[in-house]
Each structure stands twice: as C-alpha cells, then as structure tokens.
Amino acid sequence: MNNAELLRPILNDRTRSVNFFNGRLLSAEDLTSEQASQRDHDALLGNAIGPGIVNGFEVEQDFASSPQAATVLVRQGLALNTRGDLLLLSEDVRLSLRPPAKSLTAAETFFVTCEPPQSGIYVSGEALYVLTASPSTAAQGRAPVTGLGSQATPCQAAYRAEGVKFRLVELPISTAELGVGDVLRNRVAGACLGIDGLRASVTDPFGLPADTGLIEQMRSAEQLTACEIPLAVLHWSSSLGIRFVDMYSVRRRPPGSASDILGLLNGITSAREDALGLQFQDQVDWLRTRNLLRTARARQFFDFLPAAGLLPVATPSWPDGAEFTTFFDGITYNSPTFVEGARLRIILDQVKEYLPIDLASGELVRLHPIRQNRQLLDRNGPGAARPYLLFVTGFAPDFSDPHYNVSRVEYSNFW
Questions:
Q1: Is 277 left (phi over 0), alpha (psi -120 to 50) or beta?
Q2: How far apart are CA 382 and CA 316, in angstroms?
C-alpha cells in the first residue's frame, strides 16, 4: 500500500498510452503498446457493463440439413465475456459441430490468452452439450517489409483481425441422471438455471451460498474459461442427431441492459429471472410449432414454470394452442378470472421475482384471460387475434379484483 495525498494523481500502468509528438522515434513495440492500452481500456468498460449477450447470437437447429449432419445456425450478434472482451459475430453462420479437419498454422494466428482445451461433438451414444463463443484473433494479408528477406514470418501480417470461435463442452450431467422422457429439456434448464439453489436460498438464507447452476459449477471446475460466453444447450443423439436446442438455459443478458418477455417488459431486472420466463416461452413455442401443445400436459414437459407466463390457447381458428384444462391437468388452479391488459406489464415485471412454480408441490396457479384480448375476439370473430391466458403463481397477490372505473361489466369479476 502506497501513501497518497489529496489532488496528487495515482497512476496505473494498465491503461498507460504512448505520448505522440513530432520528432519522436516510434518502434513496433510502441504501437503495439498503444493498441494493448486501448484494448485494456475497452475491457474495463466491458467489465463495468457486465458479461452477457447484448443482442443476436441466437442458435437454431439447421432444418435445411439432416439432424445427423450436426450443424446449427448462429445469428450475428454482440456479446461481452467475464473478462470484458467484446465478441462480435458480423454475419450469420452455419456452424458444423464436428471437430475441424485442421487447426490454424502459426503464421495465421496471434498469441492470445483465450485458448481453452479443444473438444468436439461426441458422436457415440447420447449426451448434453453447451455451445460457447469466445474471442479469437487471426492474421490477414501480408504487409510490405524491408530487411526481412523474402521469407514470410508471422509478424509480416498486414492486419490483426478480431472475431469469435465456437466450442462444444459436455455438460457434467447425463440424461440418465436427469431421467428420460419429455421432461428432459425443462429439467436440464432447471439444473443450468440453478432452481435448487434459488429454493435453498429461501430455506436457509444464512447458510453457505448454494451453487447457482451447472454453468457456474463448470466455471469453478475450469471446464469453461472466463473468455467463453454460453450460447445454448444441445441434446445430441448419435441415432437421431440434434434433439433440441435450448438457448435460455444458459443465455444471459448483461446485468446493465434492459430485457423483455415477448416485448412486454422494460427495465433492469435479474438476468436469471428473465431467462426463466424466456426459457418457458421458447419451449412452449417449440411445442406449438410441432403440433404438440394442444395435447400437452405441463407436468409431462416441465418440472417448473416461471412465476408468471403467457400460454396460447387453442380454438378452431388457432388449433396449435393449448387446451388449458389439459395443460394444467393435475395442477391446482382457479376458474379463470379477467385481468386488465393495462396491468399486464406491471404484473409480469413484479411477479418474476417470485420463486418458480414447483409443479410437484401442489401450489395454486392463478389463470387470467386478458380483457382486451377476449373483447377483440368477441367483437371481430375468433380469427382476429390469438387467444391466450396469463398464469401467475398463487403466492403472488390476486390481480383480478374488479376496477369498475375502467373495467367493462361483462369482463369484470364478481364475488
């Protein structure tokens, strides 16, 4: 520890930059030092924002190829890792998950600190993987030089190009451990999101900190590096190929950015609570597009539900929605009561901080049609809009009490 005085600068060497002036002799080392200083400055700014995916980097199954082809589509995007490094994917890519045929040569690369162990997809049996992205640099072009002869050297590169690279890491959990069947996807999401840790923090908030999920455990075990940003969980089977891609099990936004669920929320809230809601909505959409939602039971596909969510409902005009009596079969729920749409964003924002709904606990789930949605259907016919229900944990306040100054009598609740 050094002594300090008021008004006297306390300097650091990390962001020290080269002082340029006419007549100064510059070397390659000076210019490299200047670039390193700027990168460190940017990394500190990235640390202030926090790690996560700013936008893009969506991972989707590549339905243009066969499942056994082991390829996914990754959309262009921007992210920050825990070191504060910026990850920019400037275009959509079709990513092969198989190990590369060859690695880059020394003349094509620069020395970087982000060099995790190499791994590729496991092609025998069945396993779960997390797909990650990390920063990468490579040499581009050749610069004219003097004094080096005609032999090409790594330092002769014209540009240091920055980009990203992807890696597959097997999750330290087997499908046998989680049980087999339709519930697997949601059970993996619960393990990655740290649902057990959330509940333990309520049971004994003064106890030892509970692990918040598999991703944090993998970082502690150095199976994931500080350079990597998790993008999605993949379920791979050698006989059937890619079974599912679940982004929101591991995808997080930076803590300092806003997020929403179906465009309904704004504001700075917990990234994990956002992910809980988004994972449910994404899996429901996955069921809907495969014509499985109408006959689906929540307990068939889910161990837990977010504290609040939106469920599309089946009608003759929208046959791919859910039958809510079937979906909530075996779960305690109320007779649906109306909620004003003007309160929907507030409800979703407030309730997301409650613990997820444990479907094995028998706890109450409140069901609410939205007045504006039902009124539009009644006025303009069943094809005017997709009908849906809001569900809310029974531990939250009842939001369906009537407000006669704004509610319509035929869409109010009486008791």
A1: alpha
A2: 8
pLDDT on residue 177:
74
Q: Would you say residue 415 has pLDDT above 70?
A: no
pLDDT digits (tens, 9 = 90+) for 104-123: 554 444 444 565 554 545 54
Contacts of 2 (CB under 8 A, 6+ apart): 10
The residue whose two tokens read 């940017």 is 42
Query: For 289-315, b where at least 16 C-beta lie within 10 A, e where not — what string?
Result: eeeebbebbbbbbbbbbbbbbbbbbbe
Identify the sign of the CA torsion 47, 48, 50, 54. Answer: negative
Q: Which of 59-68, 232-241, 373-382 has the lowest mean pLDDT?
A: 59-68
Beta strand pairing call for 59-61 and 71-74: antiparallel
Answer whether 288's CB lies under 8 Å from 348's CB: no
Residue 369 β-bridge partners: 389
Inter-residue contact 107 to 128 (CB < 8 Å):
no
Question: Would you state the structure tokens that stand for residue 16, as one six-digit string?
Answer: 């020290």
Q: How far apart are CA 6 and CA 390, in angstroms?
A: 58
Could you give the residue ranges of the DSSP H alpha helices within 222-292? 271-289
How far out from the chain centre does Cα 76 lie?
A: 15
User: CA–CA distance from 379 to each of 57, 334, 386 (Å)?
Assistant: 41, 26, 14
- What residues does each domain of the chain span? 50-97+112-140+157-254, 258-415
Q: In this predicted structure, what is the pLDDT of residue 14?
A: 76
Q: What's the token pair of residue 328?
A: 């909530």
Q: What is the pLDDT of residue 252?
A: 87
CB atoms within 10 A of CB 258: 12
- Residue 256 confidence (pLDDT) above 90: no
Q: What is the DSSP string of 130-177?
A: EEEEEEEEEEEEE---SSSTT---GGGEEEEEEEEEEEEEE-SS-HHH
CA 312 to chain centroid, in Å, comes to 22
Is the C-alpha dihedral spanning 104, 107, 109, 112 positive or negative?
A: positive
Residue 291: which of 316, 322, 313 has the closest Cα? 322
CB 230 within 8 A of CB 245: no
